[in-house]
Amino acid sequence: MSLLPSKTQASAQVTDSFTPESATARQQSQVVTARHTMVVTANPHATNAALAILKLGGSAVDAMVSAQLVLGLVEPQSSGIGGGAFMLYFDQHKQQLLSYDGRETAPSNIPDNIFIDKDGKPLPFFEAVVGGRSVGVPGVIALMAKSHQQHGKLPWQTLFQPAIELAQKGFVVSPRLHTLLTKDAARLSQDEAAKAYFYDNQGNAVAAGATLKNPAYAHSLTLIAKQGTAGFYQGPLAKAMVDKVSRHTTNPGYLSMQDMQEYQAKLRSPVCSDYRQVKVCGMGLPSSGGLTVNQSLALLANSNLAEMGPNSPESWRLIGEASRLAFADRGKYMADPDFYQGPNLNLLAPEYIRQRQNLLQPGGKARAAMPPGQPDMAMPQANLSAEVSIEQPSTTHFAIRDQAGNLVSMTSSIENVFGSRLMVGGFLLNNQLTDFAFSPKQAGLDVANKVAPGKRPRSSMAPTIVFKSNQPYLVIGSPGGSRIINYVLTTLIAHLDWGMTLQQAIELPHMVNRFGSYELEAGTAATKFEASLKAMGYEVTVKDLNSGLHGFIIDGNSIISGVDTRREGSAATLD
């Protein structure tokens, strides 16, 4: 029973079942090797834009801005300036790792029962998503501006030119975008601007291979390029967003001009911990990605995964149970740290990890329940209830290294596929507020991730930089909703414990356990584990698991790319 398919098998695998951002077919991927620069994004247009900026002498952050602006055009289902992002940045000269929080915020007059119906029950997910109710203050532009002020080399306006030019001349619609537009037509076409842009008069999605121009997006970007953040958070563009949200005819939201003007991207402390011979660093709260990945790794540190290997069901039992333990703590304790002081890094404390490791009992059986632990914390634990928020897998991740050795690892999202389905100025608005817990209380107890004015919803985005001997070694991240954590976790294990190349680790068929049941990636060798996992006591489902793992390894004088063939990713270098 082998998890590693041949290259021919991998390229032939097709995973067509629909999730909020489903896979279409496996792409072919060629590993790129470089010495100085590397760009890996989810779309060739974005990769080329970032590369063009590096060629002009731009920094990794400059290239990030251009890549993100192009992704918002060619991959509108996943990310854009109407959404939010988290970014890790490594300054090679200063030998400093920084993390930027561009997560959306809840409007200032939002009620805590925004996602509760008249009968006191949580709204069905798409009733909450489609329309203005789910829209938070977008943070991508603020994150880009803040990081550019500190680490940019080229003028702000220059960074907008690739996306403006591509929006004006048009881009060729990919089969993937066409498929997603077709599947989401009933929701997306409810918005007149989106309907006019993405569909013809008969309601058919723009065809694969057709050229799609977006003059409205070009106009919006020109405004922001000239005026900076004021062009987005103030003035006519901000007013258009507020009006679209607040005046929605069936599902209005609470966004205001004051909310837009007061938004700020923030610097956060990265979350780092040792695993094997490396240090794994990720994003801190309000993203749960860094903490949950690192806690899972810490729980597995005493397990001999290397000896058992990827083809052992016991390896996957241990990985799944460690993930369950970390997700249990995530559900109870992780939220916006500006609103809730949880245990945070105490979840990685050695004594606490040892306590939780005792639950990874030998015997090859799934535990019936995996409750959250009791780490040291200031807030009384009796005041909190665990919860499971809905978080959808429509996101993007990209990684960049510039000539000076500076690094960007950034995950960006509008949450669900096509976000709230509201289009303004040629871009889509997020539905990130649905990443809050729908119910502010569970069993009469407060939920850490409940809605509050100005609060940032918990995320699972996990941009990651791994250090070896105090130098950057591996840059990685993925889309995938809360499964992001598992995708990044198993990629790290596959490389660090099982000795796979980064490309092999990314291609490894997905096997995900967050809450006690196992999900196996359809059409892959993962399905061979179904019987053995069921024998251990797990419920097992086979489904499309559409990651978008992108990154690279810095090994001596070589930089080696890793591109997820489940999406349209590409890697390139100036070298």
Automatic annotation (TrEMBL):
Organism: Motilimonas pumila
Transmembrane segments: none
Residues noted as binding L-glutamate in the record, renumbered to the chain: R103, D435, S459, S460, G481
InterPro entries: GGT_bact (IPR051792), GGT_lsub (IPR043138), GGT_peptidase (IPR000101), GGT_ssub_C (IPR043137), Ntn_hydrolases_N (IPR029055)
Similarity remark: Belongs to the gamma-glutamyltransferase family.
UniProt subunit comment: This enzyme consists of two polypeptide chains, which are synthesized in precursor form from a single polypeptide.
Keywords for this protein: Acyltransferase, Glutathione biosynthesis, Hydrolase, Transferase, Zymogen
Gene3D superfamilies per record: 1.10.246.130, 3.60.20.40
Record SUPFAM superfamilies: N-terminal nucleophile aminohydrolases (Ntn hydrolases) (SSF56235)
Keyword Zinc (UniProt): no
PTM note: Cleaved by autocatalysis into a large and a small subunit.
Active site positions, chain numbering: T395 (nucleophile)
Location of region: Disordered: 1-28
Pathway terms, separated by semicolons: Sulfur metabolism; glutathione metabolism
Protein name per the record: Glutathione hydrolase proenzyme
Gene Ontology biological process terms from the UniProt entry: glutathione biosynthetic process; glutathione catabolic process
Signal peptide range: none
Enzyme Commission code: 2.3.2.2, 3.4.19.13
Name of the encoding gene: ggt
Family matches, as Pfam families: G_glu_transpept
Catalytic activity as recorded in UniProt: an S-substituted glutathione + H2O = an S-substituted L-cysteinylglycine + L-glutamate; glutathione + H2O = L-cysteinylglycine + L-glutamate; an N-terminal (5-L-glutamyl)-[peptide] + an alpha-amino acid = 5-L-glutamyl amino acid + an N-terminal L-alpha-aminoacyl-[peptide]
Keyword Acyltransferase among record annotations: yes
